[in-house]
User: Fold this.
Amino acid sequence: MEESIELTKITLEKWKIGVSIGSAVVSAVVLLYIAIRGYQKGFKVWLQQKKEERKIAVTESRIEAFKAVWSLIEYYPVKKQFKEKSFIKKEKISGASDKYFLIPKKAKEFINRVSEIFYEQGHGIFLDASIRDALFDIRDEAVELLRKYGEVEESIEFNDAECRKKMNDAREILIKKLREEVTKC
Assistant:
């Protein structure tokens, strides 16, 4: 009978050891599962943060591109707002039609700035096609005026109403599209 009690004690001890080991294994598996799920969730959150950071960076780059293009508008001003950078000047003459003058030096500066902003600074990649088209319409008309009136340093009087109309229309489209795109950001 003592042998049977001892066998029962040994069996109970083995069973306790087995339960302890089983419990430890289950705990380890549960902890491993929790760790893996935590890692997956953390990685997912990190990816979302990176995506948001990229989105913010692109938006900031687009805004910088819009600012750069906006700075070009002063090269071709509206009717009464003529500034120092303007490549077309308008003189009002009482009793006669207005006279327009092309300033080749400023026109070349404008053409170079368009290329610099669009290509060299890389802002062109962030611009909508309609903005790009309007900007290059103005640039192309400036190039055409330079070709038409020569490469002189002084201002040249010109009366190309169609050219002025194209540039005015392109400028209005450019301003409208820039404002639309900025409000989207």
Remarks:
- Strands lie at 88-91, 99-102, 156-158.
